[in-house]
C-alpha cells in the first residue's frame, strides 16, 4: 500500500495498524512512530530530550467554556503577544492561528477548539521558515537529508493552509540560500528528528530559523507528494 493519506487516520498510525493487522506491506513509518510524530506535545518532549530546540509549549484540553477561560488565562500569564494557538494532533496547519492581542486570542482558541479538543499554545518565534526532508532505505546507516527549502508566504503571516496548497501562495526556494554551517545544522536536526521518533522511509521536518539556530516545529511522516509539495522539490534538486 502506497499511503498518501494526510492528517487523522493517515498520519496518526491508524491506517498503518490496519495494514499491519491485515499483513499488507506499506510505505513509511510504523504505527508508533506515526502516532508520536502526530502528537505535537509528546514529539516536542522527545525532540527536547534529544538536544533539539523547540518552542516553549503549553498543552491544554478544551471541552467546556470553563476550559476555554482557564486556557486563555494560562496563556496570558505565560506568553507575551503574539502567541501561536493550534491543535496538538492535526496537520496541514488546520486550526493554527497567531494571536496578536486579547481579541484575536479568543478567536484563535475558539477556532482551534472547533477542530480538536487537544490544543497547545506556543511562543511565537520570528525567523525564517524552513523544511528539510529525510530519506532512508530502512536502516540507520542509510538515513540521508535532502536539500533544505525556505518557505516565504506571499500573503499570509505564516505557512497556513492556503499558503501550503494554493498555487503561487508561497515562494519556495530549494535549495535555501544558507551558509554551509547553517545548512548542516538544519539537516542534522532533521535527521535527529527522523531517528528519535522512529520514522522510516521518508519524513519532512518543519523548522523556524531564529538567528541561525533551527527550532523544530513538527515532523511530517507522510509529506505531500503533489506538484506543489516541498519534498518532491527537494528530491528533484538532489
Protein model, in words:
There is one protein chain. By secondary structure, this protein is α+β, with helices and mostly antiparallel strands. Helix content is 36%, strand content 24%. The protein has eight helices and nine strands. The strands form two sheets. A five-stranded antiparallel sheet has the order 7-6-5-8-9, sandwiched between helices. A four-stranded antiparallel sheet has the order 1-4-2-3, sandwiched between helices. It is globular. The mean pLDDT is 89.
Quick structural gist:
The protein has 8 helices and 9 strands. The protein is an alpha+beta fold and 238 residues long.
What are the defining features of this structure?
single chain; 238 residues; alpha+beta
Which range does the strand content fall in? Answer: 15-25%
- As laid out across the biggest beta sheet, the strand order is 7-6-5-8-9
Number of helices: 8
Q: What oligomerization state is this entry in?
A: single chain
Low-confidence stretches: none
Share in helix = 25-40%
Described by the principal axes of the CA atoms, the overall outline is globular
Mean pLDDT score, rounded?
A: 89
Order of helices and strands: HHHEHEEHEEEHEHEEH
The description of the largest β-sheet is: 5 strands, antiparallel
